[in-house]
Every structure is written in C-alpha cells, then in structure tokens.
Amino acid sequence: MSKCLTTELTRNIFAEMRLGECEAPDRRWLEDKDLYGKRLYRYLNIKRLKQMTCIIGIRCIDGVVIAGDQRVMRGTEYSTEKKIKRAFPGFVVAASGLSGLMDKFLFQMDMYQRSEDAKKDLTWWKFLNVLEDIAANLFVRYNSRLGVAEEMAVGAYYFDVLCGSKEYENKASLYHLYRNGFAQEVKTFDIIGHGSPCALPFIKAIYDQKKTMIQMAKVAILTLKLIDEANIDVTVGGSPQVVLMPDNGSEQELSEQQINELVLASPKDILAGVLKLLP
User: Fold this and answer.
1) Long-range contacts of residues 141-149, Cβ cutoff 8 Å, at least 24 apart
2) pTM of the model
3) Which of 9, 12, 134, 232 is the most buried (most CB within 10 A)?
4) Opening angle at CA 178, ends 237 and 175, nearest 5
5) Residue 188's closest CA among 215, 166, 210, 217?
6) pLDDT per residue over 259-271, tens digit each?
C-alpha cells in the first residue's frame, strides 16, 4: 500500500470518527502494521457496504416535495443516477440503501407494471400494497444474509423507500415504506438514507406545515448542496433531484436550471451571510 494512499485512508478514518461510524484508533494502530492493515480493511468494507443516499420528503401546504442526491456507489466507484422514479402518473418512488437492493426493488416494481394484472386495474392503493409485498419479500430473503455482520456495520440490511401519491384528485400524500414491508403515511416530513442525520437539523429547524412546496424545495436543495459541498457525508452528492407533487395538478420534476434558479448562491456563501447577521 502506497504511503499516499495510507495517509489518505488515515485521514478518512479520523473523519469518519466524527460521524461515529468508525471506532477511534489508538497508538497500537500506528505501531502494529498488521493491526493497522486489519483496521483499514474493515474501514474499506464499511465504506463499500454502507447505505447510500439522502432523500427528503416534505408535506407542504399545497402538496408534497421529494428531493434527493444522485450519488450511487457500485463496487468501488461512484456513479450519478436518479433515485426518484415516476412509476405512473400520480405516483413517484424514491429508494435508499444498498444499490443492489434498490436495483432489485425497482426491477420487480417495473416487472409488475408490465404484468397483465397491472394493466387491468392499477390504483395507487393497490400499487402501494404491491410495493409493500416486494419490500417484505426482499427483507425475508436477504436480511439474514446481510444482517449477519450488522454489529460490525458491514453488510447490514439497509433499505427504505419514500412514496409520493395522489390519493385523491386534489390531495397528494407522502408514505414511508420501511425495509420490512410496512408503509406508513408521513404527515410532516421524513428523511431516509445515510445522510439523514446531516439533513435533519436543517429541515426540522425550518419546517412549517404552512410553507409552500417552492419554499421547502429551496430548503431541501440548500441542505443537499451543503452536505455535498462541505463534504459532510461522502456518500451524498451530485446535483439534487427534486420532484413536486401538488395537491392540484400533476407531478413535476424540476430541471437543473430550475433548481439552480431556486438557490442562486452557494450554501457556504449563504451561511457566511447568516454569520454576519450575528451580534
């Protein structure tokens, strides 16, 4: 292992300590090369198999906002992929967790949509029940396999989904589909994915049920950009993806230009401006 790589890994380990995801190294780490190598191996496996993503779902006065990052890790490399999918008019799905589980979930969802049963009578409630069954079946099949080493945070079963749906013509709803196959309506806001602890303070501090989708979309975009630009969580990044689901009207995915127009300044510059207002 090169000195440069070792130095970089050491720096990353200490960075992860701040997030509570890696045990603190002691002097033995640095003096015992074999022990140090084992710790680095464990660290690399934690990074490879940790759940990814930060997806924010918010119920607003005029509809639902779902916003997420676009960074996905496959193998040892990051890629940029959309995580919010439009299943059919009036229903969007946003999955977080291990990329392999997300792929299996979305593949089975797509297969059902192509089935004769779906073509006959596909309602939002029936579709949500189908998604519950898909998630439950994945949990039964893979939880014991991936959960064996959960105490080491390696290979643990990470998977959650946020769903936005038009239950009625003039009402959009937000649901959290848990990894065990149980869906529950979200009346305020919810955040899923590895970056959720980083996003929670910002969303919780500013959230107000009387705010509009555009207002809360700005908060979600600012939060995701800040996590990315400040390198708070390396598993979260890329340009935010934002979908608005109004109570009255059809869902709309914002373009990158629309997203940038909502938040013109850099998150760091915005925070710097806030600091100047402090006495």
Assistant:
1) 142/101, 143/179, 146/98
2) 0.78
3) 134
4) 80
5) 210
6) 999 988 887 788 7
